[in-house]
Design goal:
The protein has 384 residues and is of the alpha/beta class. It has 15 helices and 11 strands. It has 3 domains: 2-145, Rossmann fold, CATH 3.40.50.720; 148-261 and 295-313, no CATH class; 316-384, Rna Polymerase Sigma Factor, Chain: A (Orthogonal Bundle), CATH 1.10.1740. The strands form 2 sheets. It has a 7-stranded parallel β-sheet, with helices on both faces. α3 (59-66) links the parallel β3 and β4 (74-77).
């Protein structure tokens, strides 16, 4: 039985993971759960799964929940609390389902304590991919990707000679505005952005999917997970979201992973690897698929993706800066402070102002992240 910690258990990935775990009660035991501030949902999860450890990042919310949970449960609060939580000896595997930059420090701590990682967070690798992957190699820790696209690449490459790899095709659904003209973007509402045609996700990642920044983050994630350059990764739009990514080998063979667009599939594979356990989920019905279509993304209409390619070529501290600026801009959009098409404008302005530091250590990355957030807020003030 695997002892699992789920960081971000109240989000969409965390809830999907708990659905998987309910299907396999003899395979998994939930020993730790955490949330940022959704304590009502976390309390329900605690009552059901009875973990040994609970973490709440928001200190105000933590103070309220601490009074309600059993004294037999060890409680961790604040951002630093998550790093302490993942160090506990009774945790074998950590599902990192926290969104945003807040996952970086607990991820590094989990690797330090040799926990096996199921990674659903992109931003940590975007910010500090070389540091994270080096730490994983040093500690002999496997980082198993949970994103459907990264999981697809991993499965296609399993057992293959990496020297035979020629190209990775990273698929994107295109989001809700793939077929909308550029002039439409100025007045897009928050409700429209959050209405993704294929996936049910958290608010931040849904906005990133609409701008295609999510695919840009996955570009950098792919580079670090599989040790490839940005030139070996081609992003293609695939609206049906059945082909989750493909790899091309130097003999002209292309391998693809196909499944329904349901996050329980890659979550289960990451948690049960190297086994494939039978579940109730259905494979695609090919007789009912009219077509599988692919097209090149329009970088003029979706400039966020172009910014990610630029950051992937630059590397150093630039990806961390891009990620931080985008996070601030997305948060401001969701609060109604800026328009949808302001998100890439703010991000681009912060990136242009940044002086890249090559081969940064963790301190330099965190400093770049902090400065970029400050600069992004100033850029937003300039817009208004």
């Amino acid at each position: 039985m695997k002892n699992i910690a789920i960081l971000g258990s109240t989000g969409s990935i965390g809830e999907s993971a708990l659905k998987v775990i309910r299907e396999f009660p003899r395979e998994f035991r939930v020993v730790a759960l955490s949330t940022n501030a959704n304590c009502a949902k976390l309390y329900d999860q605690v009552r059901e799964f009875k973990p040994l450890f609970v973490g709440v990042s928001d200190l105000t919310a933590a103070a309220k929940l601490r009074k309600k949970v059993s004294r037999n449960i060890r409680f961790f609060d604040g951002a630093e609390g998550l790093s302490a939580l993942v160090s506990q000896k009774k945790i074998d595997h950590v599902l990192m389902a926290i969104s945003g930059a807040g996952a970086l420090l607990p991820l590094i701590e989990a690797i330090k304590y040799k926990k096996q990682i199921a990674l659903a967070n992109k931003e940590a690798l975007v910010m500090a991919g070389p540091l994270v992957m080096a730490a994983a190699a040093r500690n002999k820790v496997k980082i198993l990707p949970v994103d459907s696209e990264e999981s697809a690449i991993w499965q296609c490459l399993e057992g293959e000679n990496k020297r035979s790899l020629k190209k990775i095709y990273l698929t994107a659904s295109g989001g809700p505005f793939k077929d909308k003209p550029k002039q439409y973007f100025r007045n897009i509402s928050i409700k429209e952005v959050l209405n993704h045609p294929r996936w049910k996700m958290g608010r931040k990642i849904t906005v990133d999917s609409a701008t295609l920044m999510n695919k840009g983050l996955e570009l950098l994630e792919t580079m670090h997970l599989f040790g490839v350059s940005s030139g070996m990764v081609e992003i293609i739009i695939h609206p049906e979201a059945i082909v989750h990514s493909m790899v091309e080998f130097n003999d002209g063979v292309v391998m693809a992973q196909l499944s329904q667009p349901d996050m329980r599939i890659p979550i289960q594979y990451a948690l049960t690897y190297p086994e494939r356990l039978k579940n109730r989920l259905q494979a695609p019905d090919f007789a009912k698929l009219n077509s599988l279509t692919f097209e090149t993304p329009d970088l003029k209409k979706f400039p966020s993706l172009g910014l990610a390619y630029a950051a992937a070529r630059e590397l150093g501290t630039m990806p961390a800066v891009m990620n931080a600026a985008n996070e601030v801009a997305v948060e401001e959009f969701l609060s109604g402070g800026i328009r949808f098409n302001d998100i890439p404008e703010v991000t681009a302005k912060v990136m242009r102002r940044h002086r890249v530091k090559r081969s940064p250590d963790l301190s330099a990355i965190l400093c770049a992240d902090h400065c970029a957030r400050t600069d992004a807020r100033k850029a937003i003030e300039d817009l208004n």
